[in-house]
Write a structure and sequence with these properties.
This protein is of the alpha+beta class and about 110 residues long. The chain contains three helices and three strands. Helices cover about 40% and strands about 30% of the residues. Strands 1-2-3 form a three-stranded antiparallel sheet, with helices on one face.
């Protein structure tokens, strides 16, 4: 394992603070960190938004994950389908996919 995604959740009333950090395990240094302050009205919507944002940010982080490392990750079957679904949501957001199905000529 070369990288570790670490995070925390704090709640106060209807407010949530989620913090995520990407750590290089060989050096222990922080590569990336972000804080998300949200209202807890719909926790599942918050979860989808935050995990999508983290996945999009990490997938686009320049120079930290080499092409070879990304290829290994893509070929390995997922151990956790929830994590894989979160990755797919982030990848879809990164590519601009808005959840609209393609029909006919649009699909070609």
């Amino acid at each position: 394992m070369k990288y570790l995604l670490q995070g925390s959740l704090q709640a106060s009333g209807e407010k949530l603070r989620i913090t995520a950090q990407l750590i290089d395990v060989t050096t222990g240094g922080y590569i990336w960190s972000q804080r998300f302050d949200r209202q807890a009205e719909d926790i599942f919507e918050v979860q989808t938004e935050v995990t999508g944002s983290i996945a999009t940010t990490l997938a686009g982080y320049d120079g930290q994950l080499s092409g070879a490392e990304l290829e290994i990750v893509r070929r390995k079957p997922p151990d956790n389908l929830n994590a894989y679904e979160t990755y797919l949501l982030g990848a879809g957001k990164a590519s601009g996919y808005e959840g609209k199905p393609c029909r006919g000529r649009e699909a070609v």
